[in-house]
């Protein structure tokens, strides 16, 4: 053939196809004409169209193969070259078809004389509903421009076939569901639990209504405008540093900018428009081609980049089509498993809690805010799942096992039944724990253990009543900041704190002043002068930010003091590293207290100040700090990451070190001993206290106050009631003096022998 540009070749075919489409002939006659048009334009002896019918790819029309084979030759998805193209949704371009391992010879077609073969899937809603193939006598691969023309044609065919009802849309979906069958994906368990529901993408894929353009110039203008808007959005994100959560965002943003300004990308889209496609179809067309190319390159770095481009391409599509809403704005229709690249806590909270059953993130880490919020909501989360978009479609049935980090996609009935059994067991367990609401956590030797909850949102407050917890041992005030679009004004802060105290009634609430920074970057607060931090967890965060920007702490102090008028206020400072930092923070409160006194405003009845022990250095100065404070709370999430020098958000390190190690336990024992003479409350408020075996170890160290995730209150209360403190104290003391090879195993065996269930 005379090699035209891809656009010109495709356009020439599209014009002819248009004529065929406009004709009055029936669908079969149209298909017969289409294969002639494509064959002639691509100068191919053979052009065939296979469509899915009853789960099989049936030869619907051909030029060049035996006509007797039409509606006779049928291939299963995955069978032969045509079946392979459909099952992998990929293009094949072969000089010698018979040499391909998947080649399946069908004598009735008479195709033995044709050597070269190229086939493209006809894709509808991301599923292959057919294949268009061309064949040559000459053993030569098709040129790139020919393949591209064929791919554009396949897009148009997909629309035409659906409109002509040559394939029943529902039938095609049903058949394709079988076609893609069950699959299993693995990720990192971030929040435990199990869930079942239908896949819902946070940012749904755009449905393309029209593929062939009526006015090419108008389509070009639409794409120009969309590019402009997208670039503006990306630039704005950069200036606000608001993009994503977690330390990766800078890098992602850079890649986004690179793509957004990539001339090659916009040029390819323009070429696709030249070939007669609408703006939407052109963007999708280019994306399909990139997807196919990338699939052939096995490089994880490129796969990541591909992921970014997918995201951006979808963004462009959403702008151009005006389909801008997230799945939250459309509302969940039934039990849903939400899929997102990453989410902010506010975005998660926009979803209907009754219907949101699980979350799958392509990124995500244990400490990302969304994960902490999901944990508080009792929603299982799996993170760092690769290959999601290629395998899961909107509406697919999913089973999420947050305990193992496994996702079953389109599960077989046996698997769903096994899940049902687990659900039933979970429900039984929950009912059992709910019934323990009023049971007091008293050990067998009669010690009353204080079991409190960690909270941070208004929505968490009902958990106090539901669990029968002794209070809120850690109220993460920064959550209000994280879910707000702007810095929460003093009145809003005061209102929340007052509501929290009202909900708690007689039970104590410990308000931790804002712990922002680190991985909790606020979009509206320019952080660290806009500089990226090398080690944000050890960087400008928590009290370090609050003391430098004392306006922030002043407002919060005023809000807390006002909200607690006439009641007891417990204030705790995070990340205290040296005792003077506590003094400085307390001075801010003293200043505000003096101001309120002058104003004759109602003051708290009592104010108790405390500190979090999260930085190891503070443990060396407890003798200095303890006389100044009423309580100390050990934040084991941060403390252990600093003791092990292992980033708590690093997925590779997540399982490497065990909290139940002699190092951590000996450290905690020393802290218990240092604090004891001062008679102040000592609590553990890290995630550790919510795990039963770990809680048992803490009891053995002499810790009698735990603040934990609400779901753990029942299990921990049950544990407490089975423990005899002197026994576990003796055992722990022995193990810490002469550590066994595996402390966890020793502790677990000890518990098991005494009938103490510890998961
Ligand atoms: C901790 O570090 O253990 C803690 C409770 O604080 P956060 O998890 O909010 O950092
Ligand atoms: Mg912390």
Describe this structure in words.
The chain starts with 5 loop residues before the first helix and ends in a 6-residue tail after the last helix. The longest helix has 25 residues, at 216-240. The chain is an alpha/beta fold. Strand 11, helix 13 and strand 12 (381-383) form a beta-alpha-beta unit. Helices cover 45% and strands 16% of the residues. 45% of the residues are buried. It folds into four domains: 6-173, GAF domain (Beta-Lactamase, 2-Layer Sandwich), CATH 3.30.450; 186-203 and 335-412, Phosphohistidine domain (Glucose Oxidase, domain 1, 3-Layer(bba) Sandwich), CATH 3.50.30.10; 205-324, PtsI, HPr-binding domain (Enzyme I, Chain A, domain 2), CATH 1.10.274.10; 441-524 and 537-753, Alpha-Beta Barrel (TIM Barrel), CATH 3.20.20.60. Helix 1 packs parallel to helix 4 (144-163). Phosphoenolpyruvate binds at residues 474, 476, 515, 614, 635-638, 685-686.
Superfamily at the CATH H level of the largest domain? Phosphoenolpyruvate-binding domains
CATH topology (level 3) name of the largest domain = TIM Barrel
Helix content: 40-55%
Count of the separate structural domains: 4
What is the arithmetic mean of pLDDT? 87
User: Low-confidence spans: pLDDT under 50, at least 5 residues?
Assistant: 169-179, 241-249
Could you give the count of β-strands? 22
CATH class of the largest domain: Alpha Beta
Structural class: alpha/beta
Number of helices: 29
* Bound heterogens, unique: phosphoenolpyruvate, magnesium ion
| Biggest sheet architecture | 8 strands, mixed
């Amino acid at each position: 053939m005379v090699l035209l540009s891809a656009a010109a070749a495709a356009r020439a075919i599209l014009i002819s196809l248009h004529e065929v489409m406009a004709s009055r002939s029936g669908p079969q006659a149209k298909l017969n004409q289409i294969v002639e048009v494509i064959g002639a334009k691509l100068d191919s002896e053979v052009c065939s169209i296979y469509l899915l019918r009853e789960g099989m790819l049936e030869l619907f029309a051909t030029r060049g193969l035996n006509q007797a084979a039409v509606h006779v030759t049928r291939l299963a998805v995955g069978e032969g070259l045509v079946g392979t193209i459909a099952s992998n949704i990929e293009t094949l371009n072969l000089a010698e078809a018979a040499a391909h391992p998947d080649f399946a010879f069908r004598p009735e077609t008479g195709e033995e004389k044709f050597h070269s073969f190229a086939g493209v899937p006809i894709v509808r809603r991301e599923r292959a509903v057919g294949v268009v193939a061309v064949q040559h006598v000459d053993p030569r691969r098709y040129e790139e421009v020919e393949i591209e023309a064929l791919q554009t044609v396949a897009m148009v065919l997909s629309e035409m076939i659906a409109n002509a009802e040559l394939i029943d849309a529902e039938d095609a979906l049903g058949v394709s569901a079988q076609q893609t069958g069950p699959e299993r994906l693995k990720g990192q368990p971030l929040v435990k639990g199990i869930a079942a529901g239908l896949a819902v993408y946070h940012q749904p894929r755009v449905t393309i209504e029209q593929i062939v353009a009526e006015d090419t110039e108008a389509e070009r203008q639409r794409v120009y405008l969309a590019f402009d808007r997208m670039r503006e959005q990306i630039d704005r994100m950069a200036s606000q540093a608001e993009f994503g959560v977690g330390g990766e965002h800078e890098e992602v943003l850079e890649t986004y900018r690179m793509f957004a300004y990539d001339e090659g990308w916009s040029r390819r889209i323009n070429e696709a428009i030249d070939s007669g496609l609408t703006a939407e179809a052109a963007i999708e067309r280019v994306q399909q081609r990139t997807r196919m190319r990338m699939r052939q390159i096995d490089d994880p770095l490129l796969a990541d980049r591909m992921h970014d481009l997918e995201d951006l391409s979808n963004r462009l599509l959403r702008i151009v089509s005006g389909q801008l809403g997230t799945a939250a704005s459309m509302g969940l229709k039934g039990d849903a498993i939400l899929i997102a690249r990453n989410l902010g806590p506010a975005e998660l909270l926009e979803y209907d809690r009754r219907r949101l059953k699980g979350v799958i993130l392509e990124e995500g880490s244990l400490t990302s805010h969304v994960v902490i919020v999901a944990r508080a909501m009792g929603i299982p989360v799996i993170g760092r799942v690769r290959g999601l978009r290629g395998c899961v479609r909107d509406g697919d049935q999913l089973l999420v096992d947050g305990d193992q980090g496994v996702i079953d996609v389109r599960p077989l009935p046996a698997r769903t039944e096994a899940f049902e059994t687990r659900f039933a067991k979970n429900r039984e367990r929950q009912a059992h724990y709910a019934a323990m609401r009023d049971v007091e956590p008293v050990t067998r030797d009669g010690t009353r253990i204080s079991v409190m909850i960690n909270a941070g949102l208004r929505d968490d407050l009902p958990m106090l009543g539901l669990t029968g917890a002794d209070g809120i041992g850690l109220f993460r005030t920064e959550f209000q900041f994280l879910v707000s679009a702007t810095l929460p004004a003093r009145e809003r802060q005061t209102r929340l704190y007052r509501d929290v105290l009202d909900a708690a009634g007689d039970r104590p609430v410990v308000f931790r002043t804002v712990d922002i920074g680190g991985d909790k970057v606020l979009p509206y607060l320019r952080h660290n002068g806009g500089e990226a931090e090398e080690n944000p967890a050890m960087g400008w965060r928590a009290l370090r930010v609050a003391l430098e920007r004392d306006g922030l702490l002043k407002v919060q102090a005023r809000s807390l003091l006002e909200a607690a008028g006439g009641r007891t206020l417990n204030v705790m400072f995070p990340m205290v590293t040296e005792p003077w930092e506590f003094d400085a923070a307390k001075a801010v409160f003293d200043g505000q207290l003096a101001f309120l006194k002058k104003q004759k405003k109602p003051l708290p009845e009592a104010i108790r100040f405390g500190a979090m022990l999260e930085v190891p250095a503070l443990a060396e100065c407890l003798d200095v700090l303890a006389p100044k404070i009423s309580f100390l709370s050990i934040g084991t999430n941060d403390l252990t990451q600093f003791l092990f020098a292992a980033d708590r958000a690093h997925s590779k390190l997540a399982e490497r070190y065990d909290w139940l190690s002699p190092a951590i336990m000996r450290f905690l024992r020393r802290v218990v001993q240092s604090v004891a003479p001062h008679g102040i409350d000592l609590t553990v408020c890290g995630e550790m206290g919510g795990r039963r075996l770990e809680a048992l170890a803490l009891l053995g160290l002499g810790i009698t106050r735990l603040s934990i995730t609400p779901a753990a209150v029942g299990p921990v209360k049950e544990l407490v009631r089975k423990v005899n403190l002197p026994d576990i104290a003796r055992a722990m003391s022995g193990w810490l003096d002469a550590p066994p090879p595996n402390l966890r195993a020793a502790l677990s065996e000890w518990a098991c022998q005494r009938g103490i269930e510890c998961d």
